């Protein structure tokens, strides 16, 4: 009995030893210096990596977004005031080509949804509110992301998707 126990312990030690040897053994196909890319090739790889950047989730969502048609007159009136302001903040020019930074993607009853081509910051939110004030929109109440505003006899609630890495835009309910 003691002899069998001794052989089992020795067998376990051998098995554990073999496992450790195979686990710590270096791979057989090591890369030699001859197989390593030259510095010139490395520079080309770095340059290609820098020039081809992946798009952010916001950019992908913006590219996939489809402009919606506005049907109600009240929504058209709100859009006529809001859209020029949004374009003045988010549109840009790259290589002498104008780049649209705003899409109105949904009219759902008394609500319009706009998406932007980059993350909306507090500074841009404040610029939007200031430019709306220039066209007669006054702030009635506000929190960090929600502003209640008044234009003539109409009240709007603007909800900003502020500092969000997955979506950028706003919803306006009127």
Features:
174 residues, alpha+beta, six-stranded antiparallel beta sheet, two-stranded antiparallel ribbon, 43% helix
Q: What secondary-structure arrangement, pairings included, does this model have?
A:
Elements: H1 2-24, H2 39-51, H3 57-64, H4 73-90, E1 92-94, E2 97-99, E3 102-107, E4 111-116, H5 122-134, E5 137-142, E6 146-151, E7 154-161, E8 169-173
Descriptive report:
Helices cover 43% and strands 25% of the residues. The chain has 174 residues and is of the alpha+beta class. The protein has a domain at 57-173. The protein contains 5 helices and 8 strands, in the order ααααββββαββββ. Strand 3 (102-107) and strand 4 (111-116) form a beta hairpin.
Question: What's the helix count?
Answer: 5
- Could you give the distance between the termini? 88 Å
β-strand percent reads: 15-25%
How would you classify the helix and strand content by structural class? Answer: alpha+beta
Number of strands: 8
The portion of residues assigned to helices is: 40-55%
Neighbour order of strands in the largest sheet: 3-4-8-7-6-5
Round the mean pLDDT to the nearest integer and report it.
86
**Structural shape:** elongated
Series of H and E elements: HHHHEEEEHEEEE
Biggest β-sheet: count, sense, barrel? Answer: 6 strands, antiparallel
Radius of gyration: 31 Å
Poorly predicted runs: none
């Amino acid at each position: 009995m003691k002899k069998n126990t001794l052989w089992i312990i020795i067998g376990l030690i051998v098995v554990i030893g073999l496992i450790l040897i195979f686990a710590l053994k270096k791979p057989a196909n090591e890369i030699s210096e001859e197989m390593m890319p030259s510095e010139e090739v490395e520079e080309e790889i770095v340059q290609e990596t820098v020039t081809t950047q992946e798009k952010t989730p916001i950019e992908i969502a913006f590219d996939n977004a489809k402009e919606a048609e506005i049907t109600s007159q009240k929504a058209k009136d709100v859009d006529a005031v809001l859209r020029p302001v949004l374009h003045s903040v988010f549109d840009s020019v790259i290589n002498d080509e104008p780049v649209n930074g705003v899409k109105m993607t949904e009219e759902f009853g008394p609500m319009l949804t706009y998406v932007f081509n980059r993350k909306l910051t507090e500074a841009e939110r404040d610029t939007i509110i200031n430019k709306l004030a220039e066209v007669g929109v006054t702030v009635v109440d506000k929190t960090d992301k929600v502003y209640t505003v008044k234009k003539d006899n109409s009240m709007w609630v603007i909800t900003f998707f502020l500092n969000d890495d997955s979506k950028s835009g706003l919803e306006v309910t009127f």
